[in-house]
Amino acid sequence: xxxYSMPVCHFEQYKDLNLSRDEMYDMxxxxxxxxxxRLLLLQATECFSNPPKHxxxxxxxNILIEECKEPEPLKMAYWFAGLLYDEDKKDYAKALDYYMKxxxxxxxxxxxxxxxxxxxxxEKKWAEAIEWATKAQQDEDYATEAIxxxxxxxxxxxxxxxxxxxxxxxxxxxxxxxxILCNLGIAYVHKLDYAKGRKIFHEAMELDPENEYxxxxxxxxxxxxxxxxxxxxxYTKALVLHPNMPEAHNNIAKLYYDHEGDYKGxxxxxxxxxxxxxxxxxxxxxxxxxxxxxxxxxMMNTEKSDYFFRKWxxxxxxxxxxxxxxxxxxxxxxxxx
Length: 337
Prior knowledge:
70% of the residues lie in helices and 0% in strands. By secondary structure, the chain is an all-alpha fold. Helix 6 (110-122) packs parallel to helix 8 (143-156), helix 8 (143-156) packs parallel to helix 10 and helix 11 packs antiparallel against helix 12. The radius of gyration is 26 Å and the shape is globular. Residues 333-337 have low confidence and may be disordered.
């Protein structure tokens, strides 16, 4: 928050009054009206980091916006409100409005520029996302963060050469992180350079040996190169770290029918994974249910096929649509696998 000073709060004096934290702030503002702006900003900052109090944070920010005349806390109020509408409420239009008002108060507010870039990335407006990340890069304190964000934008927009260029630029400036290395490896995999991708994933695994996705990515590389035994080895390593990882289970099932032509084995494996799942209706279980539905359909088992397709809908909270018959056309005989 720059050089803006925060007040010293004396909450201990209220400990016998059985007040909530927000009520203590109310008391502090009443007792120290000259500190009202700083107290509101401190309360907003505290509420911002506590998801159940996000609505309270917006309420406090709006008080600041209505009453505050000082640029620094007003700027922060606009930014906080923008972040909450962006990340919590997913109202990107309102988030951008708040971000732009923060920038009016401080045109070089790099953190806000990164936030604007992030909104455009979510909206898949790639050119605008790159534009704002490039502006943020001009601030040396946020340059590497902006470079990483530009790499992520290029990766998501399938501009893999540009993504690689940005991630490698980052690595010349900062120590590697497992996230940067994984994204760089993914970019190489999309360019079908599986050997390079594997090498980078192994470097990431040295930094983050507990991350189940890294051996999973290595397994994917081996599977794409038709080395099914090595692929199985790395999927198994991923499952040691996360026994209920649907993505790994699904790819192991694919090894059954792609390598062995064993559809019954694939079905048995996936049904066991579903049976042992700790969160059977989690979003990432959708892939297992969808593939079980397709596999049973290939085996001409309509009853089980419909059962698993309905579970796929249930993960999305849409099982009533399936029951009404609206979803079944999604899986007619003409659908591709």
